[in-house]
Amino acid sequence: MFELDVRSRKPIYEQLVERIKELIMLEMLQPDKQLPSVRHLSAELTVNPNTIQKAYRELERDGYIYSLPGKGSFVAKVEHRPVDQRKQELRLEIHKLFTEAIYLGLTEDEIQGIYQKAQQDRLSDSGKGEEKHD
């Protein structure tokens, strides 16, 4: 479920944060589902427990998960996430990417195609997640 690329330039904790966010957005991790413990995930991924803890702290700060002392970390419900703030951050990131894409010569049709592919991927991945729960 949690695959990391140790050869990537991106830090391990960032890869883990992105992967967990992706699984939550694809609804493969449901609200109130318990995440693996820091110790368990550290052993499974052969990563320092501090790295896992750092990723969990960032996810909690961003409202994607919550912790219960002595019980572990759990996926937060959508209404507990600071969605408006994250949307604004994404708008800024997308604007920067669009500016660079236009500068490099991508057309509006190519950019629209990328958006449509992302929508299709989300729908197909969401469907796969539902099949797993049956």
Automatic annotation (TrEMBL):
Keywords: DNA-binding, Transcription, Transcription regulation. SUPFAM superfamilies: Winged helix' DNA-binding domain. It comes from the Bacteria. Residues 10-78 form the HTH gntR-type domain. Coiled coil: none annotated. The keyword DNA-binding applies. Pfam families: GntR. The keyword Ribosomal protein does not apply. Signal peptide: none annotated. SMART domains: HTH_GNTR. This is GntR family transcriptional regulator. It comes from Paenibacillus provencensis.
